[in-house]
Amino acid sequence: MAIEKLFFNTNKTTAVDVAQARGVILLAAETNGCACYQYTPLQVKQSVVGYGRAEKKQVQEMTKSLLGLSAVPKPDDTADALAMAICHAHSSSTLFFR
Q1: Is residue 6 over pLDDT 90?
Q2: Residue closest to 56 by CA, chosen among 80, 40, 73
Q3: Between 3.30.9.10, 3.30.420.10, 2.40.30.40, 3.20.20.70, what CATH number should domain 2-91 receive?
Q4: For the purposes of burial, counting CB atoms within 10 Å of the CB of 29, is it exposed (0-12), middle (13-18) or buried (19 or more)?
């Protein structure tokens, strides 16, 4: 399982809620013996676009291209999850993208 590392730059009001949700997800993974890998937004962007400071639109377009989709995945959370999966596939010892 891959999950984004917790990072807050501007919207600190949701930090506690997001941290609680991540805690539940990480606990569920651990309880079920699921390996969990964490990636920063910079790592995801670097893996998908090749540039760690890429804009969200660039990541969405590259995700669309890499997965052979006809349109950018919607909503944005879906595109983010797919980009995370691509990052994990590139970073892990899988046979994806080789």
Answers
A1: no
A2: 80
A3: 3.30.420.10
A4: middle
Question: CB burial class (10 A; 0-12, 13-18, 19+) of residue 1?
Answer: middle
Which residues does residue 3 pair with via DSSP β-bridges, in sequence order? 38
What value, to the nearest 5°, has the Cα angle with vertex 18 and ends 48 and 57? 30
CA distances from 9 to 26, 31, 48, 73 (A): 22, 31, 22, 25
Reported as type and span, the H/E element at residue 53 is none
Amino acid, res. 73: P
Instruction: Please give the model's pTM, rounded to 2 decimal places.
Output: 0.82
CA gyration radius, the chain: 14
